[in-house]
Give the backbone structure.
Amino acid sequence: MTTAWRAVRVEQCADRDAMMSALFAAGSQGVHEDGDALVTHFPPEFDTESVVAMLRETDSSAVVTVSDVPAVDWSEWRARVDAHRVGRLVVTPPWRAGEFDPATTIVIDPAMAFGTGEHPTTRGMLRLMQRVIQPGDSVADLGAGSAVLSIAAARLGATRIAAIEIDDGAEGSALENIRANGVDGAIRYLVGDATVLLALVAPVRVVLANIVSSVLMELLPNMADALTSDGAAMLSGILVEERDLMLRAIARAGLRVEAEDVEGDWLSILVARAP
């Protein structure tokens, strides 16, 4: 199978670590260095204009270019993609799915996905979800992307899941992932503004939000309003250096921190309603 992707190349950035973090926050699943440049790739349907805007906001002096990648045979690359376990859940490409218990396996095709479960923010969310989600739970997944977290919620027993994504380019691959995992009866994939859609699906006992930290902070009051009295929200997409800023925003929204999960430079936080 051949697929034309788009390459995003960043040069002359003042802070390479900050720019690499911005690339991951924008949805990249892998960044490599080409001399002094940082390079990543996105599927053809991905909104690369938004990526470029985010990168220029991170560093206005950086030179960001986007180019089409000639059609590539991804078969060799796919063969190198491995399954990985997070707690009792396994995220795997389709060709390894038969090796694991279907009840705890999340099958994501990396050739299609906007999120394969490899990034520390996704793993942090998966760890926190296993502490909270109970059979029969209602869940809202904000910034659902490939629906990996929504599928994980279904595997953990949630039965009413709203996967909310503002970028309609992710919908096709997400719906295919949902069908491939046999959880289309539990998940509704909704495209639109989370501030509007979250209110429509509320109340929910669990909110999942693995998105850019600035958007997280804007959405915190909406999450607090959407939660049931015994509900909890899991937040990720937060750099460790942003922790204090995020904790203040959490408190202002009337929420309290229940747990934190750190992997590398990334922080995931479990919050609940303050008493």
